[in-house]
Amino acid sequence: MSSRLLLEYFGTIVTLLFSKLQQNPTDSFKSRVTRLYHLVSARAGEPGKMGADYFIGHAESIQQNVFTPFYLTVILPTTAQFARPVDRKLGVISYTKTLCESKSFAERYQKGWGFTCNNLLDLLKNPPRVAAGFGDEVVNEADVDDIGFGIGFTPLNTCKRGARDDFPEISEVDKWVGQYMKEANARHGGLIAKFVEERLTPEAKVALAPYLA
Question: Which Pfam families does UniProt cross-reference here (predicted)?
Fold first, then answer.
């Protein structure tokens, strides 16, 4: 789906997602919803007016105050369970953009700002590295002339679609976080550093310090 069509029908999409989330959804569905959220959130500041605030606006138009439980019970815990580096990388970018660009998290969800920062730091303990071209998927070629080919189960890895990296230009995500946060802090007149001082525990402040230094 193109970005234009996504924007045109996004309200309907969010309505359908929240409707299904109320019906005992599977972990797989929660993962897909979380990836969609992060993809929208990570586009903050880009053409099309996307970002966390864009998603929040549509969610709150469905039901007031629905975003808080959605974020706390779906987005944060599901992201923490992401195994694929390409998904974790998307989460890092999304969380960073939320901390630096979201007006809602800056003003309304002040505790959520701190929760987001803590979850970002958890992802950065082992910064995701995504191989160029296939995300974190490794394609193992199978030679049909090999004596073992076809014996037992032969995974069709060569037919599998590679995981998509929506931000291939960001190769070292931890370095990107530091650069983005410093630039955003300067752009917003030191507001990010102010939030760090007011909203984080001493341990979290120490962990985040290298990214703002």
Answer: CAS_CSE1
Identity of the residue numbered 12: T
CB neighbour class for 206 (10 Å; exposed up to 12, middle 13-18, buried from 19)? exposed
Q: Read off the pLDDT of residues 96-136 as tens digits, 9 standing for 90 and up.
A: 999 999 999 999 999 999 999 999 999 999 999 887 654 44
Same domain, yes or no: 123 and 145: no
Residue 101 sits in the same domain as residue 172: yes
User: What confidence tier does 158 reach under pLDDT thresholds 50, 70, 90?
Assistant: low
How many distinct structural domains can be found in the chain? 2
Closest C-alpha among 1, 4, 82 to residue 38: 82
Token readout for 133 is 């071209």
User: Could you tell me if 24 and 96 lie in one domain?
Assistant: yes
What's this model's pTM, rounded to 2 decimal places? 0.83
Q: Look at 123 and 7; give whichever has higher pLDDT.
A: 123
Task: Count CA atoms closer than 13 A to 123's CA, side-chain side.
Answer: 32
In angstroms, rounded to a whole number, what is the distance separating the alpha carbons of residues 125 and 154?
Answer: 35
DSSP 8-state code for residue 103: H
Distance, CA of 66 to CA of 68 (rounded, Å): 6
